[in-house]
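Protein Record: Sequence and Backbone Structure Tokens
======================================================
Tokens: labelled as protein backbone structure tokens, with as many entries as the chain has residues.
Task: work out the structure tokens from the sequence, keeping to the layout shown below.
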Amino acid sequence: SASVISRFNQSDKGIAVTNHHFKTVLEAAQAITKATDGAFDMTVAPLVNAWGFGFSKKQTITPHLLDSLTSLVGMQKVLLRGDSLIKLKPGLMIDASAIAKGYGVDIAAKVLEINGCANYLVEIGGEVYSKGHNPQSKPWRVGIDKPIDDPAASNRQIQTVVNLSGKALATSGNYRQFYIDENTGIKYAHTIDPRTGNPVNHSLLSASVIANDCMTADAYATACMVMGLEKSMELFSQHHELEGYFIYDTPQGMKTIHTPGFEKYLADN
């Protein structure tokens, strides 16, 4: 049978939902949308598809198309009432790709926890949660990739290493998913700002977030890539449960900055 998300996306007004995993993710997503002033938004799917980063071919982008698609975007147009998931606009779609991987890590960690595993590391697609220590009785060491144009991830280089235990780490970046317009030569990042409908255009190349759970780290890392460096640092100064490590572009080359609390996780490289 089709997934909850597929059924919801294909419906006109919404569907009945009893899946508690889905409800957990949706409620977290709604809270993070609010905390990031809409930078994180699961309803961005129609825009992602239009720009050719989703499951359909790129459309010809016009101001009129963006206007009509942005009218379908906004988490406030998705309501969870008991067992009913309601959409306030037909055509509205949700995409959980920026939060579901992190949640999957949390669930796997929970299974290990329940089965009495004291030392473990769970990783799904670069999102990580670890606890205890590694087989050498040392803290788990997790690398953050250098943001180089490397769509196939065949030439990975490590920017820095963090010690991680009892925390989650997620990284989001524009350096693997992008396309270059063959007519103009302009490079478009795969991160779409849900508020404008356009790919983001700022100096931030990669955002790594440490949080208590991976679902939260995953969603905030995506939000940072929408917000850019200054807004991300500002947000994290108000959210002390989150730490961030940012790699950004300058005319003098790549630089890094991190929240003061991230320092204690940095391994002595």
